[in-house]
């Protein structure tokens, strides 16, 4: 049985004081008894504040939104895996569509980051997904297959199992549009079949695949009730602590 994983991707939002206020409200709303894994992914500047606000809440992990693949060097503005470890970060989101489209990240670059994350004992949340044009052209499986094979190249079974894949249809991110449960399940099932081809079926069956793309309290339960959907990578709805708590609590009932 794969444990659900719900992650809050705050993107370029939340100052330190705002992050602290969020965590305080979120913990009150959530309560102590949760059976899913929760990851808060703040901007770099708020990671320390989030860790401090979480205190002894060991059931909630902290993630980062990106990182460089090199350990150190002349890379102005970048953050290394060691820097994330120093901040007690456990997860790192890699290959998000915004990084791919706005900042030109390729599958090869994402693969270098994924492998560097594992070397630093960080768990990658690898994002893959198609644009609306690619979907309408019938290229969903071609796009997902290429992204998965390129981004996961060279990983062993143990590294694969410790990687979370997030399927995020680009056309549903921040648009208010959401893939139907059937569309999402179809894509997730293809992702799992591809993971089995990259590694093996036993490994693929253990890997967790999240859905991301305008996830809200009113659609999260339906999406996560699908057999191959093991959680959610939540964007806009994760900026409201009560809304995000609703999504987390709803996922426990599945």
Describe this structure in words.
By secondary structure, the protein is an alpha/beta fold. The chain has a single domain, classed as TIM Barrel (Alpha-Beta Barrel), CATH 3.20.20.70. 45% of the residues lie in helices and 14% in strands. It contains twelve helices and eight strands. The protein has helices spanning 16-30, 47-54, 81-86, 97-103, 107-119, 132-136, 140-151, 157-161, 181-198, 201-206, 217-224, 241-252; strands at residues 5-9, 37-41, 60-64, 91-94, 123-128, 164-167, 209-211, 231-234. Strands 7-6-5-4-3-2-1-8 form an eight-stranded parallel beta sheet. Helix 2 (47-54) links the parallel strand 2 (37-41) and strand 3 (60-64). Helix 1 runs parallel beside helix 12 (241-252). It starts with a strand and ends with a helix. The mean pLDDT is 95.
List keywords for this structure.
254 residues; alpha/beta; TIM Barrel; 8-stranded parallel sheet; 8 strands; 45% helix
The radius of gyration is 17 Å
In spatial order, strands of the major sheet run 7-6-5-4-3-2-1-8
Helix-residue proportion: 40-55%
Inertia-based shape: globular
Q: What top-tier CATH class fits best?
A: Alpha Beta
The succession of helices and strands, N to C, reads EHEHEHEHHEHHHEHHEHEH
Total beta-strand segments: 8
The CATH superfamily turns out to be Aldolase class I
Instruction: Give the overall average pLDDT.
Output: 95
Number of separate domains: 1
Distance between the termini: 12 Å
Q: Which fold name is given in CATH as the topology? A: TIM Barrel
Biggest sheet architecture: 8 strands, parallel
Strand content: 5-15%
Low-confidence stretches: none
Q: Tally the helices.
A: 12
| Classification by helices and strands | alpha/beta
CATH architectural category: Alpha-Beta Barrel
